[in-house]
Amino acid sequence: MILDGKAPTGQVDTSWDRYREEMKLVNPSNKRKYKIIVVGSGLAGGAGAASLGELGYNVDCFCYQDSPRRAHSIAAQGGINAAKNYPSDGDSIYRLFYDTVKGGDFRSREADVWRLAQVSNNIIDQCVAQGIPFARDYAGYLDNRSFGGAQVSRTFYARGQTGQQLLLGAYSALSRQIKNKTVTMHPRTEMLDLVVVDGVAKGITVRNLMTGEIESHWGDAVILATGGYVNVFNLSTNAMGSSVTAIWKAVKKGAYIANPCYTQIHPTCIPVHGEHQSKLTLMSESLRNDGRIWVPKNAADCEKHPSEIPEEDRDYYLERKYPSYGNLAPRDISSRSAKEACDDGRGVGEGKRGVFLDFEEAIKRVGKKTIQERYGNLFDMYEKITDENGYERPMRIYPAPHYNMGGLWVDYECQSNIPGLFVLGEANFSVHGANRLGASALMQGLADGYFVIPYTIAPYLASIRNPGAVKEDHPEFKKSVEGVETQIDKLLAIKGKKTVSELHKQLGNIMWENVGMARNDASLKNALKLIPELRDEFWNNVNVPGSGKDLNQQLENAGRLADFLEFAEVLTEDALNREESCGGHFRTEHQTDEGEAMRDDENFSYVAAWEFKGVGVKPELHKEPLKFERVKLAVRSYK
Hints:
Layout: H1 15-22, E1 35-39, H2 43-55, E2 58-62, E3 80-81, H3 93-103, H4 110-130, E4 155-156, H5 162-179, E5 183-186, E6 189-197, E7 200-208, E8 214-218, E9 221-224, H6 245-252, E10 257-258, E11 263-269, E12 292-296, E13 314-315, H7 317-321, H8 331-346, E14 355-358, H9 360-366, H10 368-386, E15 395-404, E16 407-408, E17 421-423, H11 441-462, H12 475-493, H13 500-515, H14 521-541, H15 553-577, H16 601-604, E18 606-611, E19 620-625
Parallel strand pairs: 1-2, 1-9, 2-5, 9-17
Antiparallel strand pairs: 3-4, 6-7, 7-8, 10-16, 10-18, 11-15, 12-13, 12-14, 14-15, 18-19
């Protein structure tokens, strides 16, 4: 099937304005007749629920955390992009649009990216009005810094806590609507099924994580804003509870998952430091503004203290390979370059899987106090984890799974191929192409929540003639509850010998070694052999203690791993099918003589949307052709 993204035709520069001028509206007094379910309360979900509540819709918002304030958006550190051009260094809406399309290696939908760039400026105004404590310069103006893949300073930041501050802003807006009773919050609940009635999304089935109770909730529309799936690699920078479950349940009900192989490896993470580590810690990309990345030129020097290695024996490899961008080269390129240096035997630290991030030159240039003001909490966090002082000795960093550009397929209105199911933020595929530029995740989440979904959901709701006609007494809701209960009983009855964490670690090893930073035909086929074997072992040998009638985190983890074990196969199929290298998807068979990604625009300039056909059955591929009219296809070069 050839999919239609329903993007406005004509001049992309005016596409969002024309869409809003021509869209159907819902009368203000009619909005209270509609009920909308929002799953997820991070930046996309929290902002979306607050905005829809403010408009007068009835909103039920669900999160598995004990409070929306604990959504994983809180972990974002470095900043949020916007095209304000406050530094007067040449930025514009077009430049942000162009950088995002190029940064994604020309694998995103132009109209979606233009809209993102256009509304980015509104986000900053919104957040300033909420009191977000963005950094300011000496004169009191909002300050900016640079991030990878850009030659302008467009990133607004709140020290190294930008995600936390933005989430508190969204939470304050959400809390206001909770008090006004337009939003009902359901914390400590996990979505375990999507209820589809006559092909239309009409509700969800959830488990109360405190009591174990299974219950259903109806809605005239369902919005998923549940974040990313890179915990399929086990060790990642994501929160332990981040999973594929919500969107995977939608996939099993007919939603297409798009470009699942586009996963991002972040270049600036604290290296793995033990066999029993449960997650990895991100060090903000903003550190690359002042930190210089290097490894010894000679492998024999790797055991030396960095201060003992003279300047002429250091390889500042990003500055050498990409002089135009230097240490701010895009994430996929920076990650592969670090791996290349370590594979060459020049890695530092435990296991020789690390490179130096050095602030010595910056401290000499601007002083330690300035560096503390810019990044102090990040240095504190680094020292707590490694027991090393980053001011006195270079930090050690290494790439780690961080973000997924793929997600549920959506059209221009953020609606999936299932009518009534909308998807926001990292859970959809729409704007980042094959590689996300740094500081663009917060931008997308807030753009989708504050400034996109309040508009784009209206035409769908306006088409519903009888709001609330389908409720929990419909047979499909009962069927959904029974299906969830059967799955839980099945997991508890296995009584095997392996823990969930043991099996998850095995899956992570399979995915990292075969479907990680570098992939090829042989490794992907090996993964497709090993994943079903591990899945069989899971269903025959996992041990889930306790019961389903109360708090049981092992049961939660088992359900999430069961979904990862099915999803991993589709991710790998997508990577095997895409016979090219682009962005975060690097096939070693498809690279230039200089080791750069080699795209195949003639055969793969499309969105790959996969339809689930059953466990162990090859999914069906649907394509949405990508058209580039405002930005011409070109070799992605940062040299």
